[in-house]
User: What shape does this take?
Amino acid sequence: MTSKIALENVAIVLVQPQIPENIGSVARAMHNMGLSRLIVVDPKNCDADRMNKTATGSSTKVLEGMDIHKDLREALATFQYLVGTTARNGTLRPALTQPRTLAQKLIPISQDNSAAILFGPEDRGLSNDQLRFCHTIVTVPTASFSSLNLAQAVVIVCYELFLATDSDRRETPVPRLANSFELEGMYDHLREMLSKIGFLDPQNPEHWLLNIRRFLARVPLRAREVRIIRGICRQMDWYASQVDTLQKEKENP
Assistant: This one.
């Protein structure tokens, strides 16, 4: 049983940040709250001097250890639990949780799994396509104006995570989950198979697949469960091929 979140297993991921000073401010916010792993994906500008200007002091160590990736899927490959952030609601981006609730949920997950919390570009936030990788979506409650500065949003979430390192709740650690690389391979397989049997709309397969993602994300899958689903896909593929062969034989006796 555990009562503390493992901050060393939680990363902050900035997707397409545009302003170096904001990256530095995020590093400072993370350092204030005890987080150290920062990942930046496809940044517009990573000027070190401008980032260090706002990171200041020992917070620059977060920048020194920062990982930079060009592709989001690649950046998330090793993580077992992914959280997206958004200020906008809608049918394709239901705000399922708030930072405090998320922090409590991460206590058991973070013990044996790596988690990443994604923040989008300053001007538009995360897109639906980027949010599709996530197990859950979090929003920061605000008054009439919902848009927050990037570093403000990060520090609020990190603050709740930091408070959860001193929780009175006792949680059983969540067993090791499938990572994003395994999950995305499974979703690729599902897309191919469900398109082949006509379940997905060929005009917009990602829209329908998103519903499947949301359904499966309700209970995060372990690697063995991912292999079972892919095994079902392979069997469906074999069966569909057999049916197709028999149909051709009937048409061309």
Summary: The mean pLDDT is 90. The chain has ten helices and six strands.
